[in-house]
Design brief:
alpha+beta; flavoprotein; disordered N terminus; TAT_signal; Uridine Diphospho-n-acetylenolpyruvylglucosamine Reductase, domain 3; FAD-binding protein; five-stranded antiparallel sheet; 3 domains; ALO_C; 469 residues; eight-stranded antiparallel sheet; D-arabinono-1,4-lactone oxidase activity
């Protein structure tokens, strides 16, 4: 959303606040920090906790290898389950372990590049936010970027993290090859011609096949883009979406519940002079939407009328810069999230059902709902495997109850044959994935051969790959 929308919401909310101040007390008791786990357990093991705060563990051992040899040694000798963590932005229980917790933060940076082929080999612990300027320095950029750039490259690939855009794949879709540290303490090369089955199975591997150490990416020439943010009527953008998503290199929109509005965001290559994006204002915009929820959530029609009045005069916001500076965002406001990837023709029908269900049953929701498109690829465990996809992501403020995502939202996604984002909340198990993924059993067989004793499987991953409760 734009800085203009923030100012409008701030001014309007202040103007009506006096008349509805009593409603604030209704939310005060709920607007408290969730209780945090103890900083260490009875054995003195220190707490690990994910970004949103809903996953935690007390690893018996932690490791921060500086190179492949150190990593291989830790894998051979460390206590199982062995799990690697990047930024901790996954909401599923991928990371928690009572055994060895690894970070690849010391294994970061660009190793080499090919200027003619626009390829770069990158250490897998590199954060996407650091990779952008590093690639720009050699005249390259990733074809696509996710909404948040705090993830490590390994974490983004392993969970099928993606951006949005016509003709653009998820992060792993541009991985030409990678190196993988296995349960035996070996490091192997994987590509379409070297260990091809492992390459196909572990490109999106959830850290269950081994630990990625480096990746060779197919990039593109560094470009400048013009990014435009504008408010549209929700029904109008739903009607226009099949055309709009094809008219721009990148396109997405955020449906804003209880307002009848949506924020459309597009990006296209340009040679226009730079117009910097300026300070990030999304945090204040979210808090203004929360304020509308707190003041008027008890009367949804009034909430909608006030929101539409405040948003009525907002003008589009335009910025121009290199893509890596504009396509990803800071998201300091914590949340929990469920995102499913749907057959593209089912995206808008599912979205309309989601918005209707929220507006009927969940007046506490204020986060916008993110809508993106992703091209198919051939990684066996990719949510986009052989299917043009449209994603819908529903968020819950970290202080709010998120059980509704399972009870109310997930059944809608599943009716539309959605595949869940591997790092986002879902309740699916082995049998569900076996139905959704044509190469599921093949991938499971590769995993079992690489790690027959399950050293990389924590309890959650045992339920996913082995069907164990």
């Amino acid at each position: 959303m734009s800085k203009v929308s923030r100012r409008a919401l701030m001014t309007g909310a202040a103007a009506v606040g006096v008349t509805a101040a009593g409603a604030v007390g209704y939310r005060v008791w709920r607007d408290r920090e969730p209780t945090a786990p103890a900083a260490q357990d009875a054995q003195g093991h220190l707490l690990w906790r994910n970004w949103s705060g809903i996953r935690d563990c007390y690893p018996a051992q932690r490791g921060a290898p500086a190179n492949e040899a150190e990593l291989a040694g830790l894998i051979k000798t460390g206590p199982a389950p062995i799990r690697a963590v990047g930024a901790g932005h996954s909401f599923t229980a991928l990371v928690p372990t009572s055994g060895l917790l690894l970070t690849l933060d010391q294994m970061s940076g660009v190793i080499s590049h090919d200027a003619d082929k626009l390829q770069a080999t990158v250490r897998a612990g590199t954060r996407l936010g650091d990779l952008g300027p590093a690639l720009a320095a050699i005249g390259q950029e990733m074809p696509n970027l996710p909404d948040i750039n705090k993830q490590s490259l390994a974490g983004a690939m392993s969970t099928g993290t993606h951006g949005t855009g016509h003709g653009l794949k998820a992060v792993h879709g541009e991985a030409l090859s990678f190196r993988l540290a296995t349960a035996k303490g070996e490091v192997i090369d994987c590509s379409p011609t070297s260990n091809p089955d492992i390459y196909n199975a572990a490109r999106v591997g959830l850290g269950a096949f081994g630990v990625l150490t480096e990746v060779t990416l197919q990039n593109q020439p560094l470009k400048r883009i013009v990014k435009r943010v504008e408010l549209r009527d929700f029904d109008e953008i739903c009607e226009d979406w099949p055309k709009v998503r094809l008219q721009h290199r990148n396109a997405e929109f955020y449906a804003i519940p209880f307002t009848g509005k949506a924020a459309l965001i597009t990006a296209d290559v340009t040679d226009q002079p730079v117009v910097p994006r300026g300070p990030d204002v999304d945090t204040q915009t979210l808090m203004d939407l929360k304020k509308l929820r707190d003041l008027f959530g008890f009367v949804p029609p009034l909430r909608k009328a006030v929101a539409q009045s405040l948003m009525g005069g907002i003008k589009p916001e335009v910025m121009v810069d290199e893509g890596w500076k504009l396509l990803s965002n800071d998201r300091p406001v914590r949340f929990n999230e469920m995102e499913f990837h749907l057959p593209r023709e089912a995206q808008i029908p599912a979205l309309k059902e989601v918005v209707a269900a929220i507006e009927k049953h969940r007046s506490d929701v204020f986060f916008p709902i993110e809508v993106r498109t992703i091209e198919p690829d051939d990684a066996w465990l990719s949510p986009f495997y052989n299917r043009p996809s449209g994603s819908v992501a529903v968020h819950a403020y970290y202080k709010d109850d998120y059980q509704f995502l399972f009870d109310l939202i997930e059944p809608i996604f599943r009716r539309h044959e959605g595949r869940p984002h591997w790092g986002k909340l879902n309740s699916l198990k082995y049998a569900d994935f076996a139905t959704l993924y044509p190469r599921w059993k093949d991938a499971c067989a590769v995993r079992a051969e690489l790690d027959p004793t399950g050293r990389f499987l924590n309890p959650y991953l045992r339920s996913v790959f082995l069907g164990q409760a």
